[in-house]
Amino acid sequence: MTQCGWNSILESVTTGVPLITWPLYGEQFYNEKLVTQVARIGVEVGAEKWLSLVEDDLEDDGKVVVIKEKIERAMIRLMDGGDEVEEIRERAKELGRKAKRAVEVGGSSNNDLRGLIDEFVRLRESCIN
């Protein structure tokens, strides 16, 4: 289960596991859509409102954000092993494999980082000379 912070999503993607999404605020709701509707590697618990950090803005005294039945439904949905879940699991595994290839020598992330380092070295050398 993830709150849909970008680092949490990346950690899950690189391990190739499907996600249960529970965004709390900010960009996390957009990240949830990326996970569940674009990449289709997770299921939602159904959070509909931002969690406010200001006490006066909290509904129901801030005690309930998502009811337990929604969490239970998301967990059962992801664990039931149906065709939809198998597709979600396979997409998550494939995305994990792609993420690992990206950071290997010759992978896109590795090459981009190497290019950035080379650019810094060239910039430093041009400033020294």
TrEMBL record:
<comment type="similarity">
    <text>Belongs to the UDP-glycosyltransferase family.</text>
</comment>
<dbReference type="Pfam" id="PF00201">
    <property type="entry name" value="UDPGT"/>
</dbReference>
<keyword id="KW-0808">Transferase</keyword>
<dbReference type="GO" id="GO:0035251">
    <property type="term" value="F:UDP-glucosyltransferase activity"/>
</dbReference>
<protein>
    <recommendedName>
        <fullName>Glucosyltransferase</fullName>
    </recommendedName>
</protein>
<dbReference type="InterPro" id="IPR002213">
    <property type="entry name" value="UDP_glucos_trans"/>
</dbReference>
